[in-house]
Amino acid sequence: MEQVHATTVDVDGDGVMLMGPSASGKSDLGLRLIDSGARLVADDRTDLSLSNGLVRASAPTEIAGRMEVRGIGIVTVPVMSDSPVALVVELVTPGAVERLPEPQTMEVLGVELPLVRLAPFEASAPAKVRAALKNRNPL
User: Fold this and answer.
1) Comparing C-alpha atoms, which of 31, 8, 32, 28 is closest to residue 18?
2) How many CA atoms lie within 13 A of 83 on its CB side?
3) Which one of the listed residues 10, 44, 47, 82 is annotated catalytic?
4) Which helix (H) or strand (E) holds 87?
5) Does 66 participate in catalysis according to the annotation?
6) What's this model's pTM, rounded to 2 decimal places?
7) What's the CATH code, domain 2-134?
8) Which of 10, 26, 32, 47 is catalytic?
9) pLDDT average per 10 residues of sequence, the chain (139 residues)
10) Distance between CA atoms of 90 and 128, rounded to whole angstroms?
11) Nearest residue to 12 via CA among 42, 27, 44, 34
12) Where exactly are the structural domains of the chain?
């Protein structure tokens, strides 16, 4: 098992791991995805394990089902106990987002996962995550 600094949500059975430094927008984008039907797997820290060739994400026990919402505090949100990671989203500044990027991957526990770089505070960021899931290339 490995623990990473990431917020992970489940979007229709697909785990989306949101990665970036502190205050980069992981919880904010995760909350907006949850508001549109996703379920929280883990906020800020995600435990990763390998099962039958799939990278599975889950929450450390002490934070399961809880999410930090800046300006509100710790809240309880709809939760999944674990989810197979299907997409990694690296949170970057708007200027670092490529207009037409080549497909990229990130190796996680020896598995190549699709990777996209998005600006988390753009209004369209949740829709872009869903579009990336629907249009990801099989690896």
Assistant:
1) 8
2) 24
3) 44
4) strand 82-91
5) no
6) 0.93
7) 3.40.50.300
8) 26
9) 97 98 94 96 98 96 94 93 97 90 94 97 97 77
10) 13
11) 34
12) 2-134
